Request: fold
Amino acid sequence: MDTTTVNSNFKSEEYFINMGPQHPATHGVLRLLLTIDGEIIKKVEPDLGYIHRSIEKMCERDSYQQIVHLTDRMDYLSSHINNEAVCLTVENALELEVPERVKVIRTIIGELTRIASHCLWWGVMGMDVGALTTYFYGFRDREMVNDIFEETCGARLTMNYNIPGGLMYDIHPNFIQRTKDFVAHFKTKIPEYDKLLTGNVIFQKRMKGVGILSKEDAISFGASGPVGRGSGYSCDVRKHHPYSALNKVTFNESLKTAGDSLARYEVRIMEMWESLSIIEQLIDNIPEGDYKVTTKAVIKLPKGEYYQKVEAARGELGVYVISTGTKNPYRLKFRSPGFSNISLLNHIAVGGKIGDLVASMATLDIVVPDIDR
Amino acid sequence: MSYFSNIYNGIKSLLTGMGVTGKVFLNARKGTITQQYPENRETLKMFDRFRGEVVMPHDKENEHRCTGCQKCEIACPNGSIEIVWDRVVNPETGKKKKEIDKFVYHLGLCTMCSLCIEACPTDAIVWAQNYENSVYDRSYLTKVLNQPESKLMDGVED
Reply:
């Protein structure tokens, strides 16, 4: 009879578990196939497709005005910026010059969207590492932005405020005052965010040196947005290829070189300051003029291929249209930031613990409908 | 020594965070953004542009402004609007004219994109500011917007 020692009873063995699709830390219906040894992660395999709605295929059926509202449903936290991307593509293809007023309003609302998105991310980020209070504070400040959107655009999240050629309606008379109130309010709140979470010793220990992504890897994985900039990869589309009114404002690109979770966190906090400064530069100087140029009822793009990229809250969103001269696009492809960013999850999570996986996934700021479309 | 300084720094950072939450706790009444929702139904007013559902306003004589041009039906991305129409002979002029029989609106399909209302040349349909749209059965979400026996308002042409 064999005599088993205590040590051989507890031998190390790799095993496999599912995380998701219904898991609160995956921020939606994302399934992760984890190969783990004890609590050490050996492999992470994201399994996509649980919320696939074939938006790209539906775009081939719709007219160019109708496509805009579908992009609300991709990255719903930066819906205005998604709308803007499609509208800019169509306007560039038609060689349509939109009024200055439209450009400025689009930029202001785009930056407000970015702040609202980062507020939600900050709240959920705190909750993922165990700080429930941040969730309420983030949503409290986001509520003011949502009210601005509701008054001007008519909806809080899926706004569909842009149309090819301009805006659906003019801004509400209260818009400027409300935005100024929000900027003044939010300037007192970001230092609170820093006091509450950034400086917290537990948070620092969870973030520093975890999920490291080097600059070379960020470039080769196609990372964009705050994920790329946290690794020192200068990839801000607003800086390198300015669109709308962004060439009129001065702002700094938020860059950190550490490449860990804390760097990605700090980049987003810095971006909120930069967005506030962009809004402040533009809000007093909204030019007078029309809020749209009238287009034909049936928009037909000239035959050819068109590409436009914008900086959404999560990174670079590209819209690639192939037109054969009809009223529908022949093919429409969205280059979504979330899809590229999730591809590096395996790279940054291997070797860490499951808790670190949740934390680094939160700093990637995943929105699953954006990944799946 | 670093052992004690770690403890000191840890407690300090926790107290800084608790200072923030304490301040919010003491000023809980100031700057409240939450609403006591089911209780404040009488006073809760949505913004003018809020997209609740599509409605067709009628005046006192039960007249609407819809000419049946179907521009909203074409503009709608997902078939939420169906217009049943017919050509009716006008007894005064003797000309045949389009007239709507039923303006069917599927609230369950609607994505509130506002393209139909932008497309309408006669402002026949507008947004209502309803915010409680849930019903017990899916069939209640299909609505006929023009009231029974209603007519086209005089002088409205597309």
Residues 301 and 325 of chain A are 5 Å apart (CA to CA). Chain A touches chain B at residues 62, 65-66, 69-70, 133, 137, 140, 143-144, 150-155, 158, 160, 163, 168-169, 172, 192, 195-197, 199-201 (CB under 8 Å).
